[in-house]
């Protein structure tokens, strides 16, 4: 969800960002994620679950954002220019569609704040708590 939401936020902001999403393990794109993103006009067709080692040039990112505590702990060290950010969200897996929607909306607000900061040449929010207008579940 984070990849699709970030791509959409960048598109709306007129930014050409190269966005990739990866997890600590490859599983599958969950049906609930497809459902709640389709409700806001986004498709996960063509998306797949992947690990960091499956994305292009995995050691050369400007920003690496983790969205759960276990990913933050397992995230490798990055050289020089990479800025690591942690925006923790509750994993909606196993929860109701309402829970998935709440996490989708929180993610959307967070990535919008991140992309708007980039667009405006401002410092990006260092953490979830530093982001303006992110709804709390």
TrEMBL record:
InterPro entries: Ptyr_pPase (IPR023485), Ptyr_pPase_sf (IPR036196)
Keyword S-adenosyl-L-methionine part of the UniProt annotation: no
Domain Phosphotyrosine protein phosphatase I: 1-117
Biological process annotations from GO: response to arsenic-containing substance
Keyword set, alphabetical order: Arsenical resistance, Plasmid
Xref: Gene3D superfamilies: 3.40.50.2300
Protein origin, superkingdom: Bacteria
Keyword tRNA processing: no
Bilayer-crossing regions: none
One matching Pfam family: LMWPc
The protein's name: Arsenate reductase, ArsC-like protein
């Amino acid at each position: 969800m984070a990849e699709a939401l970030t791509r959409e936020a960048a598109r709306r902001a007129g930014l050409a960002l190269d966005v990739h999403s990866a997890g600590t393990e490859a599983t599958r794109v969950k049906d609930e994620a497809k459902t709640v993103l389709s409700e806001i006009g986004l498709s996960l067709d063509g998306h797949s679950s992947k690990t960091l080692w499956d994305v292009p040039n995995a050691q050369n990112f400007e920003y690496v954002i983790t969205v759960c505590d276990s990913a933050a702990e397992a995230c490798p060290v990055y050289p020089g220019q990479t800025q690591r950010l942690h925006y923790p969200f509750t994993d909606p897996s196993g929860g109701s569609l309402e829970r998935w929607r709440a996490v989708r909306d929180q993610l959307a607000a967070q990535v919008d704040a991140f992309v708007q900061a980039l667009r405006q040449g401002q410092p990006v929010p260092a953490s979830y708590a530093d982001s303006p207008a992110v709804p709390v579940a």
